[in-house]
Amino acid sequence: MITDGSGGTVIAWIDSRNGNQDIFAQRVNAAGAAQWTANGVSVVTAPGNQASPRLCTDGAGGAVVVWEDGQLAGDTNINAQRVSAATGAQQWLPATGVAVCNAPTNQLTPAIVVDPVGGSIVAWSDGRNATGADVYAQHLQPGGTVLWTANGVRLCDASGDQDRPDIVADGSGGANVTWRDYRNTSYSDVYAQRIDALGQIPDQCVPPDTLASNVPASTVATQNYRTFTQGWFYWSGVGVQGTSGDWDIEAYDQGSTGLGAYPTCFGLPLAGSYNTSGVDFVISNFNDNHTPPGTFGARAYRYSGSGGAKIEWDDGPDQFGIGTTLSKTGWEDFLDVYDIQLTAGVAYTFELNHSPQSDIKCLVFSSYGAPGGGYYYVAPRSARVMETIGRYGTFTPPSTEFYGVVVVNDNGVTGDYSLVVRTGVTGVGDGVSPATRLMSFSPNPGRGPVDIRFAMRETGMVSFQIFDMAGRAVASTPTARWQPGTWSTQWDGRDTQGRQAAAGIYFVQMNVNDRRVGMGRLALVH
């Protein structure tokens, strides 16, 4: 209910007197006497069920009522009606209500506030996008026409569900909207956004800062925009390491600054890395006839949790040869990128030694077989073709070229490392057996199917379950017996009904002998 401006109230409710749910209303004066028809006037009487009425004053003693409208079977929309102060008579046509939003799928939980500049502003939770319910808003003019984009302006495009909005006018023709937000999947947070009188979201993009090679930049901001200028014809990488929380990074092409809306701000995306732990990084091959040098964009952002992060770019030139030992002592940053020329068909052993307190790994990347024959090669961490397990990793290259070698410190603890590459498979038996763990997905993001890479310390029965952002199990792989070693299996990107899984974020859980041993996140795009 709301005040009528004269000491009384206007009340709206769900009413089943006609066999289905309709919306009725009544005005009561300061003495408690009903002012309209006994038992209320019909705000809407229509097929299907109408629910969740909310109302605001129309500024003249009457009210504007908004509700979930079920006139179309299987599709709930948002409708509104204005009723007069004197008799509660409907003021807008059609009698079944003005369509605030009739987009596909369901629109739910509307909220409404009077705009002192004129009319009213409505917000609701909207399921039209495959990544989850989002929050939309619309401005209703006093005559019942909509002022902003048809079917509303989207206030939030985060993953997961956003629902139960509430709204207050900003006094300037716009509004501030707040809602319950499930972008963190396992719990809900509260977010808010302002929309101005023109139906625009304020631009929060800021000019990007420039990264210097091998100089980590500290940040506490949730969104971070950086550029790096690659002038050397070598492999290069840019990464982010969070002190806590889940941090991700994305790379963007030259000339991309300002081409996207907040929170992305960049346009022309090239690749993104979305691990749930450790360092996320994107690597590029800037050798001749590959990615052209220039100024590129990088966006590092906190996906969940709290805490700051460091952002680092390594541009080269850092080339080493077979049998040459690379070493660092007191290594305080977390990302080193090198070039090494390998010969097709020759087996190589990568031997990595490091301080026990540091979680240092070596990864190898190849642009061989990439789209365009390897031209413009930019890839996430998950695209590696080899990663050391324990002290050793082996790799037989498919082509003779310069390969990218990354040394990464996943826990950021200062330490020492040395790396040497030799021909042949030597010394691998002396290494530590791989720990049983989920390692990576490729491609990620991808369109499906997805390769799932994992390691086994000992023989076990392994299966993988795939969950959506709401925690629902949408697919699984058959349980199979796997021996010790590093392996990969595949999810075809389809759900249990054989349908292509919708684009969005999914979680893959590894089970060994019916026990969960790890979980990772992957993104499907279509």
Could you explain the architecture of this structure?
With 526 residues, this protein is mainly beta. It folds into 3 domains: 2-195, Glycosyl hydrolase domain, family 43 (Tachylectin-2, Chain A, 5 Propeller), CATH 2.115.10; 209-314, Jelly Rolls (Sandwich); 434-526, Immunoglobulin-like (Sandwich). A 5-stranded mixed β-sheet has the order 16-18-23-20-21, with no helix packed on it. Strands 17-24-19-22-29 form a 5-stranded antiparallel β-sheet, with no helix packed on it. Strands 36, 37, 38, 40 and 41 form a 5-stranded antiparallel β-sheet that branches. A hairpin with a 5-residue loop joins strand 36 (460-467) and strand 37 (473-476). The protein is elongated, with a radius of gyration of 29 Å. Residues 427-432 have low confidence and may be disordered.
Query: How many strand units?
Result: 41
CATH superfamily of the largest domain: Glycosyl hydrolase domain, family 43
Strand line-up across the major sheet: 16-18-23-20-21
Total number of domains: 3
Shape: elongated
